[in-house]
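From the methods appendix. Each design record in this collection lists the tokenized structure first, followed by the designed amino acid sequence. Records were kept in a plain field format so they could be parsed without special tools. The example shown here is representative of the layout used throughout.

RECORD:
FOLD TOKENS (90 positions):
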């Protein structure tokens, strides 16, 4: 029996963290490990190593799991030795 890799609960949407009335969780992206998407706001989240997260800041270019260009929105919570990076497609 094979089990899926878990990195904890789905992260909160970046918008929902700042607006309590719009608090909701993102959904996992099918076929991509440790990547989530909020269809309501068009924001992705990806768990990356702490080294990558430390070298990243808001407004940086970001190539996400599918090779699509994006922009970093913000850095999120730390989990399992990594950190969540929120980004939008360009």
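DESIGN:
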């Amino acid at each position: 029996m094979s089990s899926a890799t878990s990195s904890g609960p789905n992260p909160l949407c970046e918008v929902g963290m700042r607006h309590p009335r719009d608090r909701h969780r993102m959904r996992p992206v099918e076929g991509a490990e440790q990547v989530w998407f909020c269809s309501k706001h068009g924001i992705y989240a990806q768990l990356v190593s702490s080294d990558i997260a430390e070298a990243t800041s808001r407004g940086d270019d970001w190539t996400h799991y599918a090779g699509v260009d994006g922009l970093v929105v913000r850095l999120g919570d730390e989990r399992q030795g990594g950190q969540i990076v929120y980004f939008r497609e360009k």
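APPENDIX NOTE: DSSP finds two helices and six strands in the chain.
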